[in-house]
Specification:
Strands 12, 13, 14, 15, 16, 17, 18, 19, 20 and 22 form a ten-stranded mixed sheet that branches. This protein has 1251 residues and is an alpha/beta fold. 37% of the residues lie in helices and 13% in strands. It is globular, with a radius of gyration of 38 Å. It has 49 helices and 32 strands.
Length: 1251
């Protein structure tokens, strides 16, 4: 009886001991395992294998790796008794694994050989429950030793994240819980429109339900961080159904989980246009007066007073120690009950600080132990925004926040010029603009401090003097500065503590820091990120609809689709189809880029554990854990891991589109492609490019660096394609000499007896040469190549002045350059009240022509100098390119027009291939020398216009009413003129352009039509750009905004517009989507129509079609479209466009307007031109402050104070901002002596960047 009791107790102890092990799985052996006597019985079916009792044969059967683990007690093995007797050559073993969090005191868990043996064993383990229960013949389920996969793309994971579902009851802090509940209640339907109070205190705007949920979840994450499983671990289940935790990277097994607190913040990634700014403002208002928690490590001890403290002292101490928002509560009581609680607030302010002990340096006799760092708890929120979005944030605050609810400090960089400080927001007392940080005490008074990024980066000077010197540790060195003259007084410039800049930002413990467009903070080494990491802020948020490059919501991706044929499809079906198309994991797309940027955000600015480098275990490699790597020694990137999905869920706040649609209905958005028939000028421009390409390819015999598509001609090829793209709007870079030169080169090569030219090549070159040769007999084309203007076909121009204005007189219809037409229009419109408004118009035209002749002569002399220089330098030219192609920058008619008329707009200069600054004639003296003599008519033109002048109409019988524009030399320009005239009265319009010349020509045409407009160009400063955006959104007279795609496709809110025109196709889907969402966003009340203009039958159409068919991987692989082989093939094998016989003369040459446009006395001029006096003194002071180069001084003096929207002689109001800043050099109009090669490959922005 005793023996039986003892045996039973041993079994019970063994059973109890097995609970400390993980039931890993089973091991199938192909041989029968014979057991020696005296086995340890586990139960009636399984017997434990003890290493001491195993025979040599048994040890061989179970394997060396298994035996080592068994002997080291890392595992325990049990053999199935039934398997021993049932099958002759089969054994089934159960494996119990000792987890890494058990027995660490007695068992070595760091052995590399044992870890390797365990990894090898895991590949053989069957984890099926059938095998565990001894069922033979069941399907084997192998243990997966790698991270559990998420075999989907980042795009899919991002768009399938669950929508915010806040639970305020989980928030421990009563005050924060109330804030979350107020946010959710603020959008409730029971709040009627007549409700006296705001739904949320201080917020004018009622939040949409999805916005309230996102804001409430942000507050919940800030106040109550969740415990999330260590991202290095994942949950696995044993065959018995028990849960354990597996780390795929190091092969560790744990029975108890290891948790990390989620960070107090994350990424607000609501789709562009859904109100991320108002969500942030709602969070700030709901938590106004809340203060951060004192870190537990620095929690001050309960003070021991020398006397019994008063009740107010003890209450204030408790409130400060536990970060209770007492001050906010007192301020609310003051408002509601009308009492003064200033003494109580003063008492609270004395108990809101703590100290961080200094880290003791290595001790020596000169060591100075620094004092502890004292931090004061601050309820303010830091917001860092791009400079061009500063005015947008200010506008959103004015729009959504009640006056007096928030006190805001605007921190912007100090102006370069010593100008008076301008109030960025006139009449707004709640916003104080400054460039220098106030004291710590003053900073604490503000609820929001908005920094521009440039100003924020200046705080990197903390701890250094003006030249960047920092104090060294140890004893101070003796001064070695030189003496002052012969005296014994040193000119001391040593670094002293008084000269060290101390940032007030680092003396406060901030409640929150928000980074708008925070995807720019993904770099871990930028000054902005380094400063943000040094600042103590409890809550950190990145606000961006694209938290990483190309990572956008599916609804943004859908905006690039051509929807004109998909009107019957449900948006949800199209959206689901778009998600499914990008569902699969792609190693090219998902290995780097967006996933890497998210990791950088998490580990640097957001400081998410355990990814950040501030934790005790050090910084983890992001790539090691977010991907599934199916190899022990290298990264295979076989898919994302479940760890990555958990990390995303803990970081991102984003509402799914279907949930947004339940709360708000955005107006529909239609995107269509408009294929335009090119006019004769468009066709000839395209054929000229093709002729140059063919001539170069054939005459260079497609070899060596002479060939444009040689591997060493990459820069030239990229320039070619860029200029080829811009030429689909207007291109005047070819001259008559260029045409003659390329025809002569082609003819000479084909006439050579030893040329290596195939019959097919010869036919192609002859074909294009024959078409291009027609330009030699075209007076219209020759005239435009000299004037470098957009030509307008005019009917019924006043006969007495037609000869002086028409560029190809007497051909009909009269073709007049847009610049000349503007001068004539401005002259006539300025004297409509006179008896004959056209009197003296002939002299205006003659003066303009005299300037063109003078410029041509000066340009010819300059080109001759450049050619002599090239001959002396033995410059080598590419095959098929005339020697004149390397001519410098020509003087332009636009520059002399500015000298004479003082208000003509300037456009960017044509490209140059090899500029020689020493040979230029662009000095003021030279420009004045070639300008035409002043005309007596100028005095009349420069008189100030009155309101009567602006509103005067021509007599009904005046022949000037019949002077109309009937067409242009650009199909796209004609289409846009028609669209602007048709829609500008009821809709605001966005036009995305590519190339400064395009913007200039469009601006000139809108000036002719008297349509208010602005240009958002990359050459403008951020402040001016921001003012233009605000003006476009708020001023009803500004109807059109021209936006450079390179700088205006991100971050702007332009929902005042509902018509969007894309002049040249944006062949990058993510950039196109960003551009479209500038208008189609929350606040839009009209249907948005987007049109992309494409010239039919041209290279542009072929490239556009190819770009639409390119996969995501192909777009990612091609850094520029020129890197795609199929696009290169399209350009190399482009076909000429056939010209019908009737197209080459008369009105058929032009792209006709369906509705001819009146030139003189257009109605509504007073709405466009501002009458009255200008601020002459202000303009003069501004001119004196200009810092200009010699080449640009003449342009700057004449452009200062002038508006691109005002014709010569018109007064400019101080409210009307100049379109081009004085820093932009006068754009070039004349490149008549440039060759095709120079015209194609010159960089139009070379001069801009140099200045």
């Amino acid at each position: 009886m005793t023996s039986h009791s003892s045996s039973q107790s041993d079994i019970d102890a063994k059973l109890k001991d097995l609970k400390r092990y993980i039931a890993l799985g089973c091991l199938h052996l192909d041989k029968k395992l014979l057991i020696e006597s005296d086995p340890r019985i586990y139960d009636s079916d399984w017997i434990e294998l003890v290493p001491l009792h195993l025979s040599d044969e048994a040890k061989t059967i179970i394997g060396n790796d298994t035996l080592k683990l068994l002997q080291a007690t890392w595992i325990r093995l049990f053999i199935n008794c039934a398997s021993i007797t049932a099958l002759p050559d089969y054994s089934l073993l159960r494996i119990y694994l000792l987890p890494n969090d058990r027995g660490r005191r007695f068992i070595d868990r760091q052995s590399k050989s044992l870890k390797s043996a365990l990894r090898n064993l895991l590949h053989r383990v069957d984890v099926s429950s059938e095998a565990w229960n001894g069922v033979y013949g069941s399907q084997v389920a192998r243990f997966d030793p790698w991270a559990s996969p998420e075999n989907v793309s980042l795009f899919y994971l991002f768009n399938m994240l669950p929508s915010p579902a806040p639970s305020p009851q989980k928030i421990k802090s009563r005050y924060t819980r109330i804030a979350g509940e107020e946010l959710l209640e603020s959008c409730s339907q029971f709040l009627l429109d007549g409700y006296e109070d705001q739904p949320l205190c201080g917020l004018k705007t009622r939040l949409y339900p999805y916005q309230a949920r996102s804001a409430a979840l942000m507050i919940q994450r800030e106040a109550t961080p969740e415990l999330r499983l260590d991202p290095r671990l994942e949950v696995r289940h044993s065959p018995t159904g028990e849960e354990y935790f597996f780390g795929a990277k190091d092969g560790s097994f744990l029975q108890e989980p290891r948790y990390y607190e989620t960070n107090r913040g994350g990424i607000l990634a609501e789709t562009m246009g859904l109100g991320k700014t108002v969500i942030c403002l709602a969070v700030i208002l709901a938590t106004k007066g809340h203060v951060p928690q004192i870190p537990p490590a620095y929690q001050p001890t309960v003070p021991t007073r020398q006397r019994v403290g008063s009740l107010s002292e003890m209450v204030a101490s408790i409130i400060g120690r536990y970060s209770i928002p007492g001050r906010a509560h007192l301020e609310r009581m003051e408002v509601e009950e009308g009492i003064d609680l200033g003494n109580c607030k003063t008492m609270l302010d004395q108990n809101i600080h703590y100290e961080i002990p200094a880290e003791h340096p290595r001790m020596n006799r000169t060591t100075r132990i620094p004092p502890p760092r004292k931090l004061v708890l601050c309820s303010g929120t830091l917001i860092v925004v791009p400079r061009n979005l500063l005015h947008q944030w200010q506008g959103e605050i004015r729009k959504h926040v009640c006056k007096g609810s928030l006190k805001i400090l605007i921190m912007d960089s100090k102006p370069k010029r010593n100008t008076k400080k301008k109030n960025l927001l006139n009449g707004d007392e709640d916003m104080e603009p400054r460039s220098e940080l106030p004291s710590t005490t003053d900073l604490m008074k503000y609820d929001i401090i908005i920094f521009t990024r440039n100003r924020f980066e200046q705080e990197i000077q903390d701890g250094a003097d003006e030249v960047g010197r920092r104090l060294a540790s140890g004893a101070p060195l003796e001064c070695q500065c030189p003496y002052i003259g012969a005296s014994r007084v040193r000119d001391c410039r040593c670094l002293t503590e008084s000269g060290i800049y101390e940032s007030a930002l680092k003396k406060l413990h901030w409640l929150r820091i928000i980074i708008d467009e925070g995807h720019n903070f993904s770099s871990g080494v930028s000054n902005a990120v380094l400063i943000a990491k040094q600042i103590r802020a409890e809550r950190r948020w990145v606000v961006s609809g694209t938290p990483a490059k190309d990572l956008v919501g599916v609804e943004v991706d859908m905006s690039t689709l051509d929807t004109q044929n998909d009107e019957g499809n449900e948006p949800s079906l199209v959206r689901n189809l778009a998600i499914e198309q990008r569902k699969n994991f792609s190693i090219k797309e998902d290995k780097t880029g967006a996933a890497k940027a998210l990791g950088s955000l998490a580990s640097n600015f957001l400081m998410v554990r355990p990814w950040c480098d501030s934790t005790a275990e050090g910084k983890l490699d992001w790539d090691d854990y977010i991907y599934r790597h199916e190899d022990h020694h290298r990264k295979t990137y076989s898919g994302f891991s479940t760890s990555f999905l958990r990390t995303l869920e803990g970081l991102v706040v984003k509402t799914r589109p279907e949930d947004v649609e339940r709360d708000i209905k955005l107006p529909p958005m239609t995107h269509r492609v408009v294929y335009l028939k090119p006019c004769w000028f468009d066709k000839m421009t395209a054929n000229l490019f093709i002729q140059v390409l063919r001539a170069n390819a054939i005459t260079s015999e497609r070899s060596d660096v002479d060939y444009l598509f040689h591997k060493n001609s990459l820069k030239a090829r990229h320039s070619l394609i860029r200029n080829l793209r811009q030429s689909n709007f207007v291109w005047t870079g070819f001259s008559l000499d260029d045409v003659a030169s390329t025809l002569e080169t082609s003819s000479n090569y084909l006439g050579k007896e030893d040329n290596n030219c195939s019959l097919e090549d010869a036919k192609l070159l002859l074909q294009s040469s024959q078409i291009v040769s027609n330009l030699l007999n075209s007076p219209e084309w020759i005239a435009l190549s000299k004037a470098h203007e957009v030509g307008l076909a005019i009917e019924n121009w006043p006969q007495n002045s037609e000869m002086s204005f028409a560029l190809a007189y007497p051909n009909k219809p009269a073709m007049i350059g847009i610049t000349q037409l503007l001068e004539g229009q401005a002259y006539v419109d300025s004297q409509i009240l006179s008896e004959d408004p056209s009197e003296g118009l002939k002299a205006v035209g003659e003066e303009a022509k005299a300037k063109l002749v003078a410029i041509e002569e000066a340009e010819r002399a300059r080109v001759e100098k450049i050619q002599k220089h090239e001959e002396s330098e033995h410059t080598r030219l590419m095959a098929g390119v005339p020697s004149s192609c390397v001519g410098g920058q020509p003087l332009t008619s636009r520059k002399t027009a500015a000298t004479t008329f003082n208000a003509s707009p300037k456009k960017p200069k044509q490209p140059i291939a090899n500029p020689n600054p020493s040979d230029t004639l662009d000095t003021p003296a030279q420009a004045e020398a070639i300008a035409a003599p002043a005309s007596p008519i100028q005095a009349k033109k420069k008189r100030r216009l009155t309101l009567a002048d602006e509103m005067a109409d021509l007599p009904p019988d005046s022949p000037l009413l019949n002077t109309r524009v009937i067409g242009t030399t650009s199909a796209k320009l004609s289409y846009l003129i028609e669209a602007i005239v048709t829609h500008q009265s009821i809709s605001k319009i966005l036009i995305f352009y590519d190339g400064d010349n395009t913007a200039f020509y469009l601006a000139q045409c809108m000036e002719m039509l008297y349509v208010g407009h602005r240009i958002y160009a990359k050459s403008l400063g951020n402040e001016v750009r921001s003012q233009y955006v605000a003006l476009f959104n708020e001023d009803p007279e500004i109807r059109v905004l021209l936006i450079d795609v390179a700088c205006g496709a991100l971050g702007l809110n332009l929902n005042a517009a509902n018509l969007v025109y894309i002049v040249n196709p944006i062949n990058r889907p993510h950039i196109e989507a960003q551009a479209i969402k500038r208008a189609h966003r929350i606040g839009q009340t009209k249907e948005v129509v987007v049109e992309t203009l494409v010239l039919k039958g041209t290279i542009e159409e072929a490239i556009f079609t190819r770009a639409k068919k390119m996969s995501r991987d192909e777009h990612l692989e091609a850094k520029t479209l020129e890197d795609d082989n199929k696009i290169i093939d399209i350009i190399q094998n482009a076909k000429v466009i056939t010209i019908d016989p009737g197209e080459s003369c008369g009105v058929a040459q032009f792209a006709a307007l369906n509705t001819p446009q009146q030139v003189f006395g257009r109605p509504g001029r007073h709405k466009y031109q501002k009458f009255g006096n200008t601020d002459a003194k202000g303009s003069e002071k501004s001119r004196k402050r200009q810092r200009v180069t010699q080449n640009d001084s003449i342009q700057n003096r004449e452009n200062e104070g002038a508006s691109l929207t005002a014709p010569p002689g018109a007064a400019t109001s101080h409210l009307q901002l100049p379109i081009l800043t004085p820093h932009v050099p006068a754009p070039s109009l004349d490149t008549n002596l440039q060759t095709p090669f120079q015209s194609l490959f010159g960089n139009p922005l070379d001069k801009l960047s140099s200045t």
